[in-house]
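Need residues for this backbone.
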């Protein structure tokens, strides 16, 4: 898979991004079913790390958004990831925003998406998790339906948390996508405190019921002020959340102004996000002072980028857009880079 992607990429980039996405997954799933993907996978060093009480085979994970419905976990597992994060899943199915809603900016190694939590709903998501042969570390990213008002958002998150709890290694609370109207308002201190208090209470009840603690992490935006980031850090530590994921996509357009599609609405990811994401990680690390771990994501397109996130204070990293531009070779490069002293 590693050596084939550079030859396939020009063909894939000639297609609509969502069409290319579906075609790539169809081929990956087929290759995994017949064992070809496993044979072509890279041999990576064992670099286990314990974070949130979970033993990760290596610190390089797949970010949420690529496998929204947990349909392709077995295929993705052949690419060398230490863990996978699926979703974002919502209680009820929803189609997301109208197409076209994903745009490549190859000159900047970037993407803009306004997908809008398109997914088949948590009932179908759970059925997919029950069928999968994947047995590795699985994070589940949960959100609210677009038509659920923010004052009822906790109901959606709690419904998802209850449904995925038996199958998830950890759960990520997505309050930072720019593509669901008003969602980022949940990052404001009062709203966030109410939401996370309800989630922590339910997490403890579920642990008692099932005899199993499932860590909960919160995914935040890169567009917060440093003061807002520090405020969130204090709240997460106070409520004893298990982790924080920094960051989601940005509504900023630094680094892509004037490029085709740069004016499209949605969240920007890829290389232009790298510096801001790393800065948020550094601010979080200083404010948290070890109170809870950070998962670093945003603009990782090389092994050095992954090392930069760890140096800033992250315990784990995730990739998404870099996988589209670099292919599976990026996973191996990051794992090997993080294995170096």
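Answer:
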């Amino acid at each position: 898979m590693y050596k084939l992607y550079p030859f396939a990429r020009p063909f894939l980039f000639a297609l609509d991004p969502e069409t290319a996405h579906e075609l790539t997954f169809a081929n990956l799933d087929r290759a995994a079913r017949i064992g070809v993907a496993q044979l072509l996978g890279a041999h990576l060093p064992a670099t286990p790390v314990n974070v949130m009480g979970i033993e990760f085979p290596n610190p390089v994970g797949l970010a949420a958004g690529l496998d929204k419905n947990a349909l392709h976990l077995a295929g993705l597992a052949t690419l060398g990831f230490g863990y996978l994060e699926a979703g974002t899943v919502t209680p009820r199915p929803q189609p997301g925003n109208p197409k076209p809603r994903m745009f490549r900016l190859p000159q900047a190694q970037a993407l803009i998406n306004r997908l809008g939590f398109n997914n088949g709903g948590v009932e179908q998501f759970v059925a997919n998790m029950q069928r999968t042969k994947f047995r590795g570390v699985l994070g589940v990213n949960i959100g609210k339906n677009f038509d659920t008002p923010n004052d009822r958002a906790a109901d959606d998150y709690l419904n998802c948390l209850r449904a995925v709890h038996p199958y998830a290694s950890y759960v990520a609370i997505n309050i930072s996508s720019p593509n669901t109207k008003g969602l980022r308002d949940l990052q404001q201190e009062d709203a966030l405190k109410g939401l996370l208090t309800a989630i922590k209470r339910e997490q403890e009840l579920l642990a008692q019921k099932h005899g199993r603690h499932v860590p909960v992490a919160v995914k935040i935006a890169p567009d917060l002020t440093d003061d807002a980031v520090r405020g969130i850090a204090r709240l997460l530590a106070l409520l004893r959340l298990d982790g924080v994921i920094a960051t989601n996509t940005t509504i900023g357009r630094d680094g892509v102004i004037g490029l085709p599609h740069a004016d499209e609405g949605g969240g920007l990811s890829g290389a232009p996000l790298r510096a801001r994401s790393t800065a948020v990680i550094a601010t979080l690390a200083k404010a948290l002072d070890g109170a809870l771990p950070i998962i670093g994501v945003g603009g990782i397109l090389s092994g050095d980028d992954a090392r930069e996130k760890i140096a800033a204070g992250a315990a784990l990293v995730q990739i998404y857009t870099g996988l589209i531009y670099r292919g599976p070779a990026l996973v191996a490069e990051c794992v090997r880079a993080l294995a170096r002293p």
